[in-house]
Design goal:
about 100 residues; mainly alpha; 4 helices
């Protein structure tokens, strides 16, 4: 009888509400990761043109600093959905910073 109760509890925990909550929990970090690809596109444009033109380095440095702070928070909270996308953002931001530095005048 006790085994049956555990099975019932398990099946009740897989509800549309919990599936939605789980989906949303991963949707934000996924969208943030995709959004960070914009900085790589900009860095690639700088590399291709061999010039920064009139672009500011601020978006790249802001991305690094912002993601660094959130990565620390993710480490403290032991929350991979915060830590992983922001650690990835540090790398993407650093690619932009290095590319900007290489082609700035």
């Amino acid at each position: 009888a006790q085994e049956r109760s555990s099975t019932t509890k398990l099946s009740l925990s897989i509800s549309p509400d919990s599936m939605l909550a789980t989906s949303l929990r991963f949707a934000g970090p996924l969208m943030f990761t995709v959004m960070q690809l914009a900085s790589v596109k900009t860095a690639y444009g700088i590399h291709k043109a061999k010039s920064t033109g009139n672009l500011s380095p601020l978006p790249f440095t802001s991305l690094v600093v912002n993601c660094f702070v959130w990565t620390l928070y993710g480490i403290l909270r032991k929350d991979l959905t915060v830590l992983v996308p922001n650690a990835y953002g540090i790398v993407m931001g650093l690619i932009g910073v290095v590319t900007y530095q290489n082609y700035s005048q």
